[in-house]
Amino acid sequence: MNRVRTAMIIGGGIAGPVTACALRRAGIEATVYEAYTDIATRDASGGALSIAPNGLDALRVIDAEEAVCAIGQPTSDMVFENGRGRRLGGAPGLPGLPPSRTVLRADLHRVLREHALDHDIRTEHGRRLVGMREEPDGVTAEFADGSTATADILIGADGIRSTVRALIDPAAPGPEYVGLLGFGVGAYLPGDGDPRTAPDTMHFAFGKRAFFGYWTRTDGSVALFSNLPHAPMTTAEARAISAERWLGLLREAHAGDVPAEAVLRAASADDLMVAGPLELMPPLPHWYRDRLVLVGDSAHAPSASSGQGASLAMESGVQLARCLRDLPDPTAAFAAYEAMRRPRVEKIAAAAAKTNNSKAAGPLAKAVMALLMPVMTRTVLTPERMFGEAQRHHIDWSAPVAA
Question: What keywords tag this UniProt record (predicted)?
Answer without folding.
Answer: Monooxygenase, Oxidoreductase
